[in-house]
């Protein structure tokens, strides 16, 4: 060829290609992450959660008082139909026992986080274990696990939680946590199993099998990681439901019997409701806190799901 | 079709059997067993033994289990510990109240949820859509018993728009025919009773409808958006069909498929919401019954029957949903 | 006077937070009444987007369409969306690639055909269904009476595509756009569908725009062929011309990469090196240059224009494949 391409032009081509093509081969996850940080919904959700975490972790530093201490200046003004409101040193006033309500709200973040995280985590671990075994082994193990989840899912979730707590020997904070956790076990189990089954037939697992990869490795390296994204989304959403369920149990008199415990669901479901006509703030603040945190986790969970959805429409 | 029904009925039976078995053994695993549960811990040994024999708890466990199953099948759940009445009677009395409440709630949830979800999808990204999304998010994040108290506080205290609690005004002498007060009033031509009962129904029904409403809106919206992206909608557009025809004939019917499933699930979940709502409004239905049987000493016979009832309702509702699916979706019909 | 005159059609996709993508970049071509015109190119070259833009079927959000689409002297791009609905289905029919997803799964086939007739010819439901039956018969669907009440999932892939053809041709449009109509079908069915299309188009005098990546389809069907690359027409020629003497190195490469029975088995199939992601912007020269065997310095620098050839075609190349016989 007589009129070949000169080096200058060749470099120009390389330059143009580098400039035009988006960094090729961006992984799905990184792509999802990029969509996530660009999504204002996700940012709002994450901001709420971070704020909530900071308050929970640094509660002793943020709170003006000890959450269980009863203050004479508050108790002396307590009557059947008056609970002292805001005053010097007590920005949100008193609770029905003459304790500093603001401090209880702040420490409440800690307890609520504790209940929500543990209930979610226990449910997740048990569910994932069951689902993974059912999905990986198949056969009668799968059948048994699925019938078990059928039974658990035959009751609406809150009703199952109520039943579990009601059947427990005695109530404590742990009965609430465990009951809410158990309710979520079948959801996680089915989610994981469904995702594993779908993957068992998928091309990348078939390819791994064809290459002679061991079954154990296929499950742990190829199937589980892919299923876990769905589980993470579900866990984020579950957290919101868990603290709402815990509040409902408290409202029904099935909550933690410890009167010193400052937990939003407990504060709303017991005192908040009982003294609603005397001092509705006792309900408003914990309710608002619960709504905000539930909202935060829901927003984040949905944004993650959206970011992971290859269709990415909604 | 028949095969689907029979398979689901078998599944129902298996689930119920498993559930009863679990409840049976759980009750017997409690410290002191059901006798203590019935008598409390301070009963004398004589009373305890008498009751143990009377209830057949001295017999081997499988005999007890067989007897228990037999009782369940024949609808004999024993007597309530609290009131001493037969469990079936206690439940029968409370049942209509909850059904009335649940039906009202589901009518609100579907009647508002589907159109709102559809409108939000059509106006995607605009003010209406964003407002709907925010409201539904708050709707699923709010503890509904708190919402109940809020509504009660706003609309029954100062302004007296709605009655604060109960199913009917105390002075009203309504005839009880079916136990459904709104229906009774219509049947007996006591229209004032019907209106009064309806008036009492509004706030509890709205409270109970909140979560299913929010969920139905979200699912409808998402589903309509999905369908709008489908190839067959593009085909319909390519045919030059007018927008209303496309919406009614092509979009809506396909979009309703996932919504129907959600409606089934939510109808079952209403029973759980009813426990909270009924407590707020002192409604006196199954929810109140559940609350009463778990507070203080636990009324296990009632509780056990309620659990089984809830499971039956839940499974039957979802069976109905599956069947209605077949009506809407020809792909299911053939199988 | 051409039936369809596409002038300088451009489609730019713009999504929030991403760089705009120019999917169709100043495409012009014409279709005479009764003529069959091919739009050929690999996936992503803009051929499907072109067809959707002509029909006004691109989603309303996230894209910008410029240029002119003159159909019978009317610029379709200037019509209000509701007015364009009067043209679609009546004057221009369209069939799509995936016949299963393109038919509504919950509506009986009969109604899916009949509703076009109801809409554009004012037929009653009964008359429309009767005509639908005849249409299904005409596209070779056996037992059409029974099929009227059946649903898409009960039909085979080939039958579904026949049904889509029946829908598109129901109102005897003057133009039919077929977007990869055989790609989703079995090879044995593909030939049947193409034969059917050719028969129907020839009988009714309908003009056809055939969009495909398959040069075999073009060879059997098209009068004129437009080869698209990266959103632009790079070569236009009469069918025989194109197959006998491709001038653009891309067209040449495409033809070389078709397996042929009359070539020695030992010879390796030609392939075009690189991929679409190696393209450079048209504003900087020829987009195909990085993949081109015949690239020279003149290919880089400024946009290469589409210039008419002696034989009634057009070519966008600075260093075309030489002709064997000098013109």
From TrEMBL, chain A:
Under SUPFAM superfamilies, the record lists: MetI-like (SSF161098)
What InterPro entries does the entry give? BP-dependent_transpt_permease (IPR050366), MetI-like (IPR000515), MetI-like_sf (IPR035906), OppC_N (IPR025966)
- Which CDD domains would you find in this protein's record? TM_PBP2
Extract the PROSITE patterns matched here: ABC_TM1 (PS50928)
Record-annotated ABC transmembrane type-1 domain positions: 109-301
State the annotated membrane topology for this chain: Multi-pass membrane protein
Instruction: Give its localization.
Output: Cell membrane
Transmembrane regions: 42-63, 113-141, 148-168, 174-192, 228-254, 283-304
Gene3D superfamilies from the UniProt entry? MetI-like
Q: Which UniProt keywords apply?
A: Cell membrane, Membrane, Transmembrane, Transmembrane helix, Transport
Report the sequence similarity comment from the record.
Belongs to the binding-protein-dependent transport system permease family.
Please state what the protein is called.
ABC transporter permease
Automatic annotation (TrEMBL), chain B:
* Membrane topology classification: Multi-pass membrane protein
Pfam families cross-referenced by the UniProt entry: BPD_transp_1 (PF00528), BPD_transp_1_N (PF19300)
Span-the-membrane segments of this chain are 9-27, 101-121, 133-151, 197-217, 255-276, 305-328
- The ABC transmembrane type-1 domain sits at 95-321
- Keywords assigned by UniProt, alphabetized: Cell membrane, Membrane, Transmembrane, Transmembrane helix, Transport
| Record family assignment | Belongs to the binding-protein-dependent transport system permease family.
Q: Which domain of life is it from?
A: Bacteria
Q: Keyword Transmembrane: yes or no?
A: yes
Q: Mind telling me what this protein is named? A: ABC transporter permease
The record, for PROSITE patterns, names:
ABC_TM1
Classification via InterPro entries: BPD_transp_1_N, MetI-like, MetI-like_sf
Location in the cell reads: Cell membrane
UniProtKB/TrEMBL annotation, chain C:
> Which InterPro entries does the annotation name?
AAA+_ATPase, ABC_Ni/Peptide_Import, ABC_transporter-like_ATP-bd, ABC_transporter-like_CS, Oligopep_ABC_C, P-loop_NTPase
Q: How does it sit in the membrane?
A: Peripheral membrane protein
**Which GO terms fall under molecular function for this chain's record?**
ATP binding
Any matching Pfam family: oligo_HPY
Q: Does the keyword Ribonucleoprotein apply?
A: no
Q: Localized where?
A: Cell membrane
Q: Which UniProt keywords apply?
A: ATP-binding, Cell membrane, Membrane, Nucleotide-binding, Transport
Which residue ranges does the record assign to the ABC transporter domain?
Answer: 6-255
Q: Superkingdom of this entry's organism?
A: Bacteria
Coiled-coil regions, chain positions: none
Q: Which family does it belong to?
A: Belongs to the ABC transporter superfamily.
Q: What is this protein called?
A: ABC transporter ATP-binding protein
């Amino acid at each position: 060829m007589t009129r070949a391409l000169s080096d200058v032009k060749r470099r120009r081509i390389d330059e143009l290609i580098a400039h035009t093509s988006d960094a090729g081969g961006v992984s799905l996850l990184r792509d999802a992450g990029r969509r996530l940080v660009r999504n204002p919904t996700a940012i709002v959700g994450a901001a709420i959660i971070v704020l909530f975490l900071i308050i929970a972790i640094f509660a002793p530093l943020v709170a003006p008082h000890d959450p269980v201490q009863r203050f004479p200046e508050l108790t002396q003004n307590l009557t059947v139909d008056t609970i002292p409101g805001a005053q010097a040193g007590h920005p949100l006033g008193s609770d029905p026992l003459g304790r500093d309500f603001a401090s209880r709200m702040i420490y409440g973040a800690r307890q609520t986080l504790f209940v929500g995280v543990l209930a979610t985590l226990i449910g997740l671990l048990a569910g994932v274990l069951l689902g993974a075994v059912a999905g990986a082994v198949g056969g009668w193990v799968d059948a048994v696990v699925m019938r078990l989840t059928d039974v658990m899912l035959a009751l609406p979730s809150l009703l199952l939680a109520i039943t579990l707590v009601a059947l427990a020997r005695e109530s404590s904070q742990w009965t609430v946590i465990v009951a809410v956790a158990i309710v979520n076990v079948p959801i996680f189990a089915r989610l994981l199993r469904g995702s594993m089954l779908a993957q068992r037939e998928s091309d990348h697992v078939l390819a791994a099998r064809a290459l002679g990869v061991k079954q154990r490795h296929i499950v742990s390296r190829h199937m589980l990681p892919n299923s876990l994204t769905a589980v993470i989304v579900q866990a984020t959403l579950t957290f919101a439901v868990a603290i709402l369920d815990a509040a409902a149990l408290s409202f029904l008199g099935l909550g933690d019997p410890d009167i010193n415990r400052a937990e939003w669901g407990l504060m709303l479901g017991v005192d908040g409701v009982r003294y609603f006509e005397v001092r509705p703030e006792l309900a408003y603040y914990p309710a608002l806190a619960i709504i905000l945190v539930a909202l935060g986790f829901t927003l984040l969970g949905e944004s993650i799901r959206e970011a992971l959805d290859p269709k990415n429409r909604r | 079709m028949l095969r689907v029904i029979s398979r689901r009925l078998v599944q129902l039976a298996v689930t119920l059997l498993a559930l009863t078995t679990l409840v049976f053994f759980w009750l017997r695993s409690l410290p002191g067993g059901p006798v203590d549960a019935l008598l409390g811990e301070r009963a004398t040994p004589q009373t305890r033994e008498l009751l143990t024999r009377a209830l057949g708890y001295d017999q081997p466990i499988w005999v007890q289990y067989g007897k228990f199953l037999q009782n369940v099948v024949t609808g004999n759940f024993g007597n309530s510990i609290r009131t001493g009445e037969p469990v079936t009677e206690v439940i029968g009395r409370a049942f209509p109240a909850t059904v009335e409440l649940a039906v009202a709630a589901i009518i609100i949830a579907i009647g508002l949820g589907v159109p709102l979800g559809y409108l939000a999808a059509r106006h995607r990204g605009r003010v209406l859509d964003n407002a709907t999304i925010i409201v539904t998010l708050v709707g699923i994040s709010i503890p509904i018993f708190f919402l109940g108290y809020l509504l009660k506080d706003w609309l029954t205290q100062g302004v007296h728009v709605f009655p604060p609690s109960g199913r009917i005004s105390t002075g009203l002498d309504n005839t009880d025919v079916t136990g459904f007060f709104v229906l009774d009033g219509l049947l007996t031509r006591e229209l004032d009773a019907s209106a009064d009962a309806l008036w009492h129904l509004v706030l509890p029904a709205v409270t109970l409808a909140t979560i299913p409403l929010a969920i139905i809106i979200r699912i409808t919206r998402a589903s309509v958006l999905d369908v709008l992206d489908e190839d067959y909608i593009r085909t319909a557009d390519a045919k030059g069909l007018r927008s209303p025809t496309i919406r009614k004939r092509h979009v809506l019917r396909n979009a309703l498929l996932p919504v129907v499933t959600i409606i089934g699930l939510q109808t079952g979940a209403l029973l759980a919401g009813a426990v909270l709502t009924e407590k707020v409004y002192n409604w006196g239905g199954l929810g109140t019954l559940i609350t009463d049987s778990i507070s203080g000493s636990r009324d296990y016979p009632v509780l056990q029957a309620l659990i089984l009832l809830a499971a039956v309702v839940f499974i039957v509702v979802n069976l109905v949903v599956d069947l209605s699916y077949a009506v809407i979706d020809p792909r299911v019909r053939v199988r | 006077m051409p039936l369809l005159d596409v002038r300088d059609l451009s489609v730019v996709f713009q999504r929030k937070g991403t760089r705009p993508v120019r999917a169709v970049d100043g495409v012009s071509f014409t279709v005479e009444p009764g003529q069959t015109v091919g739009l050929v190119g690999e996936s992503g070259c803009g051929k499907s987007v072109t067809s959707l833009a002509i029909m006004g079927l691109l989603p309303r959000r996230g894209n910008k369409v410029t240029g002119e689409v003159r159909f019978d002297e009317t610029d379709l791009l200037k019509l209000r969306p509701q007015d364009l609905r009067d043209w679609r289905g009546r004057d221009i029919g369209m069939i799509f690639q995936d016949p299963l997803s393109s038919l509504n799964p919950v509506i009986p086939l009969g109604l899916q055909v009949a509703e076009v007739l109801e809409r554009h010819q004012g037929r009653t439901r009964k008359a429309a269904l009767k005509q639908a039956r005849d249409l299904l018969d005409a596209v070779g669907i056996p037992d059409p009476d029974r099929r009227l009440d059946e649903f898409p999932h009960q039909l085979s892939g080939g039958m579904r595509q026949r049904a889509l053809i029946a829908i598109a041709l129901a109102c005897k449009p003057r133009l039919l756009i077929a977007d990869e109509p055989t790609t989703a079908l079995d090879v044995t069915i593909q030939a049947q569908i193409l034969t059917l299309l050719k028969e129907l188009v020839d009988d009714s005098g309908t003009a056809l725009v055939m969009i495909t990546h398959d040069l075999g389809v073009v060879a059997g069907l098209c009068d004129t062929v437009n080869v698209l690359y990266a959103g632009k027409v790079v070569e236009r020629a009469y069918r025989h011309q194109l197959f006998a003497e491709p001038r653009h190195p891309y067209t040449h490469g495409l033809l070389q990469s078709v397996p042929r029975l009359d070539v020695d088995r030992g010879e390796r199939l030609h392939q075009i090196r690189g991929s679409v992601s190696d393209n450079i912007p048209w504003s900087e020269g020829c987009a195909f240059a990085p993949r081109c065997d015949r690239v020279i310095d003149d290919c880089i620098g400024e946009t290469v224009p589409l210039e008419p050839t002696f034989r009634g075609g057009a070519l966008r190349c600075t260093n075309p494949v030489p002709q064997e016989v000098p013109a």
